[in-house]
Amino acid sequence: MQLAFIAAIQELPPRQRAVLLLRDVLGWSASETAHLLEGSQASVNSALQRARATLEVRFPRGQPSGLPATDLRQRALLERYVKAWESADPDGLVALVREDAVLRMPPNRAWYRGRAAIKAFFGWVWRPQGYGPFRLLTTAANSQPAFAAYVRDPLDATYRAHGIHVLTLADDRLSVLTIFRDPRLFQVFGLPAVLSADSVPVAGPRT
């Protein structure tokens, strides 16, 4: 969100800025945005297209591709995060978070605080009939380490864009996990929407 604010404030006129933040950051619908801004859905969609076009010209490479500097303990923590996701291990993931850690998934209003709540959520996600398996690729967002998560499609064994994970680190633990469940973000990050099963690289933090 910080990157979106910075880019929008610097490069966009007020209405386009408002539309971009409401639609692409907060996940509002065109009708909700039009109602708030007292305009039509057509005008909102037009403003969003112009805003995206402006940012595409100003920032053709999208988000930064490298991770911010981390020490050896933090790099090990990120590697364990990838392993927990790719092995569907809620116990392993919970061992990485602080006791008061928060999991949030904007624009979904639901959020979870504390190890017990986070473990229960991922136990549900990774249940035998649930989502998975996953593959994670390294990226960065908002000057923080991040991963692009892909989930396997049972129909053709490819891995399809699932969400962007942005991690807030506090020493050698994770304090906030922010998961953006919006496959459209992969294009912004310059990432493919689909990975073939035999071309999935071993994911891990870049040094």
Q: Helices, strands, pairings?
A:
Layout: H1 2-11, H2 14-25, H3 30-37, H4 41-58, H5 72-86, H6 90-94, E1 97-104, E2 111-113, H7 115-125, E3 134-141, E4 144-152, E5 159-170, E6 173-180, H8 185-188, E7 194-195
Parallel strand pairs: 1-6
Antiparallel strand pairs: 1-2, 3-4, 4-5, 5-6, 5-7
Describe the 3D structure:
- This protein is of the alpha+beta class and 207 residues long.
- The chain has 2 domains: 2-58, Orthogonal Bundle (Arc Repressor Mutant, subunit A), CATH 1.10.10.10; 72-199, Nuclear Transport Factor 2, Chain: A (Roll).
- The chain contains 8 helices and 7 strands.
- Strands 1, 2, 3, 4, 5, 6 and 7 form a 7-stranded mixed beta sheet that branches.
- Helix 1 (2-11) runs antiparallel to helix 2 (14-25), helix 2 crosses helix 4 (41-58) and helix 3 (30-37) crosses helix 4.
- The radius of gyration is 18 Å and the shape is globular.
